[in-house]
Structure prediction request, 189 residues.
Amino acid sequence: MTATDPRPLTGEPVALDLLNTRWVADGTPLDLFAGAGIGLTRVEGLEIWLRSTGLDAERGFRADPATLVHLLTAREALARAVADPADPGARSLVDAVLEHGRIRATLTADGPGERAEFADPSWGPAWTAARNYLELLGSAPDRIRKCASETCVLHFHDVSRNGTRRWCSMAGCGNRAKASRHYARTRER
Prediction:
């Protein structure tokens, strides 16, 4: 039986989805790759993440200890880069992950194409997440956001028309903030 993804926010671009493998539930920090508190082994958490992002065996990537180590390296690099894009140390860490892959131009039946290549395929998911971060920076860096809730650690790519999304989820953090404001107003009366 395949385990389901326990994370509260999925479906973000790969770089942000990797950051969202750490979250907080009822005040308790959880980590998809640590397994503690969610009943999974580290590799089972990796399998879930690879499957949810489309980077599983169909793309040639396997859930194994080496891939997990490289992915954790990328997650820390991306976390630092997203927290402070001007940090030269964070940029160096992301660049170090990107050193493990490259893009090869190809000619396909549909015209020009690209294919990622890795000397060590276990770096593939980590490199893919770091490359995706570069794509997000190239298209809309101001739309990479952390949830506005002080107790939430999740990130999202704001694709709203006017770019004013504040919450990882209106049903979760957004609703809690609205309820809190309402409670505060009713207490003042």
